[in-house]
Write a structure and sequence with these properties.
- By secondary structure, the chain is an alpha+beta fold.
- Helices cover 14% and strands 34% of the residues.
- The chain has one helix at 2-28; strands spanning 50-52, 63-65, 72-73, 76-78, 94-97, 105-111, 115-116, 119-128, 142-143, 150-156, 161-172, 176-177, 180-186.
- The strands form four sheets. Strands 1, 3, 5, 8, 9 and 11 form a six-stranded antiparallel sheet that branches. The protein has a three-stranded antiparallel sheet with strand order 10-6-13, with no helix packed on it. A two-stranded antiparallel ribbon has the order 2-4.
Amino acid sequence: MEKVERDQTVGLVVLLATLVALAVFSASLPVMADYQAEQNVTVSKSETLLIKNQNETYDVTYWNFTATIGTNSTDVINSWAESQNPSDNNTPVARIQNPNSALDLIIYLNASEFSGTATVSNEWYNLTNTTDNTTDADGISTALTFDTDTDTGNTIYATEFRNLWLKIYATTSGTATSTFKVLGEGA
């Protein structure tokens, strides 16, 4: 009987030793796939770009187009009563300023759809250096997709300005309003 108890005791000790060894080694192994975590991040474009008037002194808060149905119009006047003239580099609708002295930014534009009685089917833009002319209204030729952040591919360097030129195509008479945003993202 003593031998059977000893065999059972030895068997029990071996079993306990195996369980303890498994617990120790399992605790020291790295945790694998069952404990993965998802991480998310939302990064917004900086809204630090400024919309200035033609002599870079004042903020521009709006502009008004005058258009004829079925024609392209570059006839726009900003909130400082300054008219856009595409053949003169000193008369854009506005100048975009990067006020950040340490960061170059890629310019993004976002024009919302026009709402009201008038219908504007298309809007175009051109961004130039302040010393460059657009030459004429045909130079304002890059399409904006309404309600979309449009990457202009144009980098505005720290503390510099860019001329903003605009053109629309109206299809119905009346009045309409749209919101125009200028955003910057680190280059």
